[in-house]
Design goal:
The protein has helices at residues 2-21, 29-59. It is mainly α. The longest helix has 31 residues, at 29-59. The protein is elongated and about 70 Å long.
Length: 70
C-alpha cells in the first residue's frame, strides 16, 4: 500500500512541477490540454528511461567469477 501511495505522490509532484515550470493556469481549457500533452510526454519518457535502466541492470554480471577454475 505504501508503494502505491509513493508512486501516486511522485506522479502528482511531477504534474505540479510541470504546471509551475510552464506557468499553466488550470482554469483555462487550453492550459489543461497543454498539461495533458506535456504530462503524457513526460510519463512516456519516464517509462522508456525505466525500461532502459532495467534492461541494463538485467544484463550486468552480478556473480563474481569463480577463482578456483584454472
Amino acid at each position: 500500500m505504501r508503494l502505491i501511495i509513493l508512486v501516486l505522490m511522485f506522479l502528482m509532484i511531477g504534474a505540479l512541477f510541470i504546471v509551475s515550470e510552464n506557468n499553466l493556469a488550470l482554469k483555462e481549457n487550453k492550459s489543461r490540454q497543454e498539461l495533458k500533452t506535456i504530462y503524457l510526454s513526460w510519463f512516456e519518457q519516464l517509462f522508456n528511461n525505466s525500461k532502459n535502466l532495467i534492461g541494463y541492470v538485467v544484463k550486468l554480471e552480478w556473480l563474481p567469477e569463480n577463482q578456483n577454475e584454472s
